[in-house]
Design a protein that fits this description.
The chain is of the alpha/beta class. It has ten helices and eight strands. Strands 1-2-3-4-5-6-7-8 form an eight-stranded parallel beta barrel, surrounded by four helices. The structure holds phosphoenolpyruvate.
Length: 229
């Protein structure tokens, strides 16, 4: 089954989770559904969705334990039943998550038994100068030693996130083939995926799923995505 992962970022509420639960209650899901709400909604999501979804966090601490006020470690996430964590999202990289921190977070997740969605992707400048594959190759090279069988790679071109722009399908295919060959792992696509384009994107063989941001907050449209394939 292909993956549909939802990233609610800082948005969402208990009410929206209730609405999504109602909307999905009598549906047979045709995807592996990984739901990543803000930390504060993880526990509630597990109560509501555990029977048909895996619940993921959007980040984790670089520390395994200790006096790090405000941080949330992978073992705490595992303790409440969280089974995935997004690591290295471009919005986290922009706020200071460098390669060494990303590597440590992957190792921490692995030790705690949490699967990882590890994000890679180029910015607009790199894309426009035709250097996407070189850039991705470098991003993957520094992480390669810690990637493992419980890692899914999310290819998220930064210029496509929240902009309504996506690469042409041939480009997505080429890039996914490349990442798949480099890592041997499942590669999902993220960046402006909507109800209107997800079937085309998922029809590409090397696209193992999609990571959906903004569209996943639109309950009616997102529910349709989860049961139509
Ligand atoms: C994301 O930020 O992971 C994402 C995919 O966002 P959007 O779908 O809104 O572009």
């Amino acid at each position: 089954m292909k993956i549909i992962a939802a990233n609610w970022k800082m948005d969402g509420s208990k009410e929206l989770i209730d609405n999504l639960a109602i909307s999905l209650s009598d549906l047979k899901l045709v995807f592996n559904f990984i739901f990543c709400p803000p930390f504060t909604l993880i526990d509630y999501s597990i109560q509501k969705f555990a029977s048909f979804a895996k619940i993921g966090a959007q980040d984790c601490s670089v520390f395994e334990n200790g006096p790090h006020t405000g941080d949330i470690s992978c073992s705490r996430l595992a303790d409440i039943g969280c089974s995935f964590v997004i690591i290295g999202h471009s919005e986290r990289r922009k706020s200071g998550d460098y390669d060494s921190a990303i590597k440590t977070k992957i190792e921490n997740a692995q030790k705690a038994g949490i699967n990882q969605i590890v994000c890679v992707g180029e910015d607009l400048n790199t894309y426009e100068s035709g250097k996407t594959l070189d850039f991705l190759s470098q991003q993957i090279k520094v992480l390669k030693s810690v990637l493992n069988n419980n890692t899914v790679i999310a290819y998220e071109p930064i210029w496509a996130i929240g902009t309504g722009k996506i690469p042409i399908l041939k480009e997505i295919e080429k890039i996914h083939n490349f990442i798949e060959k480099e890592t041997g792992l499942t590669v999902i696509y993220g960046g402006s995926v909507t109800l209107n384009n997800y079937i085309d994107i998922l029809s590409i063989k090397s696209v193992g799923g999609v990571l959906v941001g903004g569209e996943s907050l639109k309950i009616e449209r997102f529910s349709k995505m989860l049961y139509t394939w």
